[in-house]
Structure formats: C-alpha cells, structure tokens
From TrEMBL:
Species of the source: Bifidobacterium scaligerum
Protein known as: Peptide ABC transporter ATP-binding protein
Keywords: ATP-binding, Nucleotide-binding, Transport
PROSITE patterns tied to this protein: ABC_TRANSPORTER_1, ABC_TRANSPORTER_2
Domain ABC transporter span(s) in chain numbering: 7-245
Protein's UniProt keywords contain Protease: no
One Gene Ontology term from the biological process aspect of the record: transmembrane transport
C-alpha cells in the first residue's frame, strides 16, 4: 500500500484569547490509511479537525491537501478541496435536517457538491448500498432512524461526492458499543473499496487500536508522541500515553467483568 501523504498539517498553532489550544502540531495522513488523533477532553482534537476542514483559521501553520496549502487556496481551489475532504460528525441526528427526508438531505448535499442532477438517484442509491442500507431509507426522516442508521446516512451523504479524505470527529462516540463496531466496520470496508484516507479523531484508544495505522497523541495542545499505532500502543514512550493506555485497560476490564 502507498504511504504518500495526502493530507498533512505543518506547525499548527491555535490561540483562543490567552489559551493556546494547539502548539506547533504537525501530522500526516497517508494515502489510503487512517491517522488517529487521540487525547483527553480539551486536548485540542476538534480544534485541529476544524482547522483541517478550513472552518477555523490557525494562528500559525497550514494544512496541505494533495500538496496544496488549504489556507492559501483560491476560491475555486477551496470549492474543489471541499469535494474531496468531507466531515463525518459526532452527532448525526443533529447534522441531518429533521424536516427533510434522507433523499432531500442527500440532494441538498449533491447539489452543493456539483454532482450532476441526472445522476442523483443512482448516486444516492449506490451511496446507501455502500453503507448497507436499502433505497427505502431515502423516504425516512431523521427521527425515524436509529443512531447507527443516522450515522450510516451521514457517511452515505459524505461519500456521495466521492471524497478522498474523511475527517471523523468522534464519529462513533455517541453510539452503543455494538453499533460502534458496525459503523467502524462500514468505514473500514469503504476505505478499502474507495481508497479513502481517514483523519480519525477519538478519545478512545480501543477505537485507535482497531482502526488506525498511525496515531498522534495530543495532550493540552502538544503532540506527546506520534507514529505507527502498534509500536506506540505496545511501547509508549510518554507518561501521558501510558496513562491513556491504563484507562483503556480499565475500560476493557469493566466491559469484561
Ligand atoms: N471557539 C473557542 N473559543 C475559545 N476556546 C475554545 C474554542 N474552541 C475550543 N476552545 C478551547 O480549546 C481547547 C481545546 O478544545 P477542543 O474542542 O479542540 O478539545 P477536544 O480535544 O476536542 O475535547 P473533547 O474531547 O471534549 O471534544 C479547550 O480548552 C477549549 O475550551
Ligand atoms: Mg472535540
């Protein structure tokens, strides 16, 4: 598998008032691979995600998509980038308009993403099939969906514009453990089928262990360590990573007991 960087951040600093949320953070998402960004609440994960989606301006540094700095792009390049880098939100029910059917939400997205109108029906049915949902879900309203179904619809919506990178911010945190596994499996399968690269924000090292080729550990806006997931989980060099691992082991024991 290729290991070219498709999406990376270089020396990102973000300061809110007198609080430094991110301090000189760099990361790399390799083509077709998953980078996990892990850390406790308030460590700066979502701030990094928002900067990566060009929703929040960094004080220093830039994010590069296919080699182009996203904060230096022309409006045309920004529109193009938005086709290729999509968000999977934490709370899919809030992210779907409650007054619109799944079909209407997908059409709104496809129109914004410049999918040709004559292809909408085929793309919508195909995107639902990719997340293991039948075409009957096109007529459903968000209130009629379970959390797992809503998250799969949010994924279907994101992949309808054939993106290269999915930024997932706590994409399974609001789901029960068994439904989490279903959604993670859908993402893994899509990654293989579509060659997607995932920027996967989570506070859960079990999810990192399951999903991520590489991991970046954030503590209070600082990178404490980064690299191959297996090496870092098996041989953590930093005390903070060891603390997170202890919490992970504790969580597993709670589930087992
Ligand atoms: N818009 C903002 N204005 C001021 N401070 C902010 C803003 N957004 C985030 N922060 C602060 O930056 C820090 C990092 O926040 P962030 O949301 O990135 O953390 P997080 O790692 O995603 O946490 P969680 O796991 O709880 O989602 C926090 O101290 C937060 O209070
Ligand atoms: Mg967050």
């Amino acid at each position: 598998m290729s290991s070219n960087p498709i999406f990376y951040g270089s020396h990102i600093t973000k300061i809110f008032g007198d609080h430094t949320a991110l301090d000189d953070v760099s990361f790399t998402v390799r083509q077709g691979m998953t980078l996990g960004v892990v850390g406790e609440s308030g460590s700066g994960k979502s701030t990094l995600g928002k900067i990566s989606l060009r929703l929040l301006h960094p004080n220093n540094g830039d994010i590069y998509f296919q080699g182009y700095p996203i904060w230096g792009m022309t409006p045309t390049q920004i529109r193009e980038m938005r086709l290729h880098v999509q968000l999977i939100p934490q709370d899919p029910k809030n992210a779907l308009n409650p007054a619109k059917t799944v079909w209407q939400s997908l059409c709104f997205h496809m129109a914004a993403q410049k999918v040709e109108r004559r292809r909408w029906r085929d793309v919508a049915v195909d995107s639902l099939a990719k997340v293991a949902l039948g075409p009957e879900y096109l007529e459903a309203y968000p209130a009629e969906l379970s959390g797992g179904q809503a998250q799969r619809i949010a994924i279907a919506r994101a992949i309808s514009s054939r993106p290269d990178v999915l930024v997932c911010d706590e994409a399974v945190s609001s789901l029960d453990k068994s439904v989490q596994a279903q959604v993670l499996n859908v993402l893994c399968r899509l990654q293989q089928e579509m060659g997607l690269s995932l920027f996967f924000i989570t506070h859960d090292l079990n999810v990192v262990d399951y999903m991520c080729d590489d991991v970046l550990v954030l503590n209070n806006g600082h990178v404490v360590e980064s690299g191959n997931t297996r090496e870092i989980l098996d041989h953590p060099q930093d005390a903070y990573t060891r603390e997170l691992l202890t919490a992970k082991e504790g969580a597993i024991r709670e589930v087992e007991s």
